[in-house]
Request: fold
Amino acid sequence: MRKKIVAANWKMNMTQAEAARFIESMLLDLGEITDVEVVIVPPFTAIAKVMEALGRAQNIKVGAQNMYWEKNGPFTGEISGPLLRDLFVHYVVLGHSERRILFGETDEIVNRKVRAAHEATLRPIVCIGETLEQRDMGNVEKILAIQMRGSLAGLNAKELQETVIAYEPVWAIGTGRNATPDQAQEAHAFVRHILGEMADDATAERVRIQYGGSVKPENARELMSQPDIDGALVGGASLDPRSFVQIVKAARER
Reply:
């Protein structure tokens, strides 16, 4: 059985002091949780503080929100995989729709970052998802297939198994709207089908696929009870430790 993974994407929020308070509160409620993998994804400036606040809580991992594909060099403002590993980061979110839309990242760019992440022994959380216009035109599967084949090109079976896919319908991110459990499950099942075509069925069955897009305590349980939904990439609701803890606990109720 695939282990559920719930990640908190704080985006451009949380000072170091706020991050420390969040972790302190979260640990009081979650304790030594082991049956769900929890990932905190703070802004770069708070990564070290989150690590410090987690202390010996080895069951909770830390991720980064982005990275560049080169190891080092004259790339002002960028951060590399080796630099993230130096901070003991385990995961990195790549291809988020905000990166694709606001910063013009293409599937090719995402792919270069994904391959660089694996080379640095980071586990990428690769985001894919359609816009409302694309959904209304009936192009959901076409868009997801293009994004997956482009963003994950060249990965072998082992690398695919160590990659997390986050299906995030763009129209549901930060809007308060979310895909229905049936809509989300349909998309996740299709993603797993494409993974089978890219590798094999056994590999596809091992890859974890998260749902993201206005996940909150009220809808988390029903979403994550679907057979192909293996967790959640949580945005706004992850800024409140109580809400995030409730979502993590919902992942345990299968």
